[in-house]
Amino acid sequence: MSLVDLVLDRVRDSLSAGEPGTARNGLDDALLLRAQDGAQNSSETALGAAQGVGAVAAQQKSSLDAATDRARLLHARGRDAEGMVSRVKDALERVKLVALNAGLEGSRLGEAKGRALVLVAEEVREIAHAGLEGLGELDGILAQLEEERGALDADLELARQRASDLSQELLRVQAAQRTAHGQVVELGRVLRSTTGSDPETARLVAQVADHARGLLGALSKLAEKPQRGFVLRALGPTLRPLLGLLKELDRRGGEERE
Fold first, then answer.
1. pLDDT (tens digit per residue) in 207-227
2. CB 118: neighbour CB atoms within 10 A?
3. Which among 76, 117, 207, 217 has most CB atoms closer than 10 A?
4. How many whole angstroms from its chain centre is CA 45?
5. Fold of 3-17+24-253
6. pTM recorded for the entire structure
7. Exposure of 191 by Cβ count < 10 A (0-12 exposed, 13-18 middle, 19+ buried)?
8. What is the Cα 114 distance to its own chain's centre?
9. Is it the case that residue 244 has pLDDT exceeding 80?
10. Hey, where are the domains in the chain?
11. How far is CA 16 from the centre of its chain?
């Protein structure tokens, strides 16, 4: 039997070896542990991402809460301004009334004595009238601002509620992620206890098995080629140590089974 055939047989035996009477061999255990290790890493990454998104959502909710508070303060200040405008309007109306009475009194005093009083009264009434017109415009602007503040309050409240709902949903996602992560970790513990292996060994075994399958396929094709001498000269320095290692692993495996 050629060196290539020997290596082929050893590789085939290694890939198909298993405990007699068991439904699962060592390679299956290694693949399970590798899959569990990958799932655990993915679970940790997903949990970290969920926690990061949750932190961002919490910051967003805090910012919206602060913006809502500022909008409410602005709303209160707007009402204060409207109250001040109303009080000033009342004062100017009283000034107009006083000026009217003063003008009437000046008219009764006659041209000589009351002329100056009439002129001052008219000037005061004009100033009060102009002030009332300005306050009327300001009152209209404040009314528009009140409408816009009301719309802003509604938008902020809706955004705040949505942020709160999102935060609650993310908390549930994080809880589910933590539960799933714990279950994956527990699965790894059970697999390590059952198989007597660990994720690093399982990763190496699965990696070797993957390479062995590729080697088996390539050697099977080479075994069909007529240039055996060339193949042996080219692969001998590599295949002989590999064959020796496979024999040693097979011997140790036999000793462990005994």
1. 776 777 777 677 677 667 666
2. 17
3. 117
4. 12
5. Helix Hairpins (1.10.287)
6. 0.48
7. buried
8. 81
9. no
10. 3-17+24-253
11. 45
